[in-house]
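Continuing from the previous page of notes. For each protein in this section, the sequence appears first, followed by its structure tokens. Read the first protein now.
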Amino acid sequence: MPKTRLLHRYSVSVVTLIALAIVLALGVVAAQWIPWGTKHARVVDGNIRLSKSGERVANFSDTEGNTFAVSLADLWWQSGTQQARGNPPCVTPGKTVRVQLGLLWVANPGGGEHEEIIWLRCK
């Protein structure tokens, strides 16, 4: 077999391998942006306080001084081995308690995005 034909065969193989590697890398990057599957929340530590009995919104302050209003009515929570949706047992009127919040960025229907509180963990 002539030397030029052998070099041509190897160069085609190398080009094919490089093209496959690029396509594979692009597939991995694209898969990271597909909006399917499990999403992992950003975890924020802080204190939460419910001012008075009957309220369904508590005030949360994180360790950096940011504050959030937290609607407890339909919030998924975990306390020890218990978990449910609704008012967390650790959040009681007049007491400040340490908790963790799970925050997730969600797309708005008209464009843009905002961070949503998706869970609360009692500490």
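Done with the first. The second protein uses the same format. Note its length before scrolling.
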Amino acid sequence: MPPQNNQQKAKKKQVIQKNVASKHKLSKTSGAGGIKKQKTGHHGKPSYRALDDNTLTLVQQKRGGFFDFKPLPIKKKKITKGAFRFESNPTVHGYSSGYHESGITTDTTDHLWNRTQLGNGLSAFPSTAPNPLKGEKFYESNVDSILKAGDGARTDTAQTILSVPQVNGGGSAGHSGSNVKTTKQKQAHDLLRKTTVDMLRDNDMTPGVASVTFGALTVASMAPGNLASQAVDAKKIKASQIKDHWESQREEAKSRVEHMYQTLSPKEQARVSHHMSNVFKSLPSDRRLANGRCTSPVRDKKRVGTNALTGGGYVSSSNDVLPTPTHSLPIKGNMSNEEYARTATLYMTQPFRGRRK
């Protein structure tokens, strides 16, 4: 997208404030200040490349993601319903798994492709879409960045147990295809849908903000081990090999998200923090963000009692330092580039996918 000068941005803001109802005014609240910098050089750590990501199929590796964006026809051509969803395929662990879209859900993309362009830089979800999408207005200029960043935000359904918002009683819900009871799965997905709407309505959205927010959202929505273990039939989770590594995988994903967070400008970090603050306000009160970060504090990776999955409570009330990621994404990349931002989202969510054959 071409850069906008201050006069254009001021006009853009004025237009949407006039068109969007007062209860839907865009928030300009910044995130936490005083962000503590972490080292971004990981000497001796291998660099991530989609071509080497064995949690992707060969086609996905070559494409650099899941959806084929090269003939991007979303403004002119009808897209087949469910085109953003990808079929289950075999893993090396003896089971097949489909994918959970952990940022922008498939039904959200279906409605997004059927949006109405209102003019003056605004678009709207169809009035026939369900809440929280129904009729919501947003910036058309944000669509491509959010679609591409969201394409990389995928976890295996076989190892996905979701966090349920406090308003729906909290707790956790298995995802379809996980063998864990799926009660309140819809409510857990609604938190992702609502966050996507908020991101589309953000006047300061960039590819980097979209990517890191979806990475952080994936970690937050993937229930921590002590909570995931409360889901009915958690012991029957399809990806049985993950039981002893549940929290260590979440911590690895956290460290990758924070690694990418530190590559953003202070203004971009503030927008990510704003969106994640809203996410955590929707979760039970015992869940919180770490000071100056966009993910939660480090958790105990050991199993509590006879829980189905490993993982305990927060190990520190202070602003603890996350472990270094096992892989890094080359800092020479540019997070303002939509393709690099998509690669970054693949990198951040990789710990939640199993190896493919």
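What the second structure shows: The chain has ten helices and nine strands. Strands lie at 89-90, 96-97, 99-101, 116-119, 122-124, 137-139, 154-156, 161-163, 172-174. We return to this in next week's lecture.
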